[in-house]
Model the fold of this input.
Amino acid sequence: MNSVPSSGHSPSTSSGSQSNARELELLRQVATGDRAAFKELYLMYHRRLARFLMRMTSRHDLIEEVINDTLWTVWLKAGDFRGDSLVSTWIVGITYRRALKALRRHGTARPMLAEEVAVAPDVQAENENRQWLGQALAELPLEQRMVMEFSYLMGHSCEEIAQIMQCPVNTVKTRMFHAREKLRRSLPRLAGANK
Amino acid sequence: MTHSDHTGPLGAHGECWNLLPWIANESAAARDVARVEAHLHSCRECQEELEFQRRLRNAIRSEEAVVLAPQTSLQKLMQRIDTVEDIDDAPYHGASPRAGRAGCRSLRLSRAS
Done:
């Protein structure tokens, strides 16, 4: 029997609330031109945005461009943030839209291939699983893959993903539904590992 | 019941099935957690699916991609900010720095977009 954890990353949890409160405080400082706060926010987001963007492209120059364009927008628009969403949802939404534009502009809207992902070389089976996973994700349509990445790589809720992708919640659920079905078929070992 | 024959929720089972990814990533609202937990007691299919989604989540999160060094990128962005503010820094020294900054930033954003 599965147990369902009662805590997590949702805004209703204490850890999520504390994290968002700190980010909100930094954002308010950034709105006044506080560079130290901006640098802290930048470093806070760089790794998670880079990890996410690496699932969209293998071009490091594009990844850096999108991250800096995103944080540039944050620097400029921090004072306009009204708190309608989590700070992370706002920033990831900017990143997502910037990434789509950059990929269209450069004509490199392709997923990162499994062999381009740096993996731990010590365990062969784990390595193979990662290659299969990378390939299976790469075969999903972009929007389905992004819902999967927003959920499992970034930890966003369904409602947050709808805000990030600027689409209805039901659209997120539908994209996730199709992604799950395809991954179940393409990852039989992972899907049936407990059977 | 199988899930390959529909693309949306069908009753309580379908609703819970659709919520499982956000149970797996621990971001679901408390009311949804409670609803799914109640359903899981009597649904082996959802139990297995939740386990699959948890494995999937763990596998995706454990992928350690090459991470770029942030300091170099940060330095570039700070130089970009410095350059723009050097060009038109007049609003920063006015009677209302925040208002000036906001106006200036909106202008810069439109240039950047």
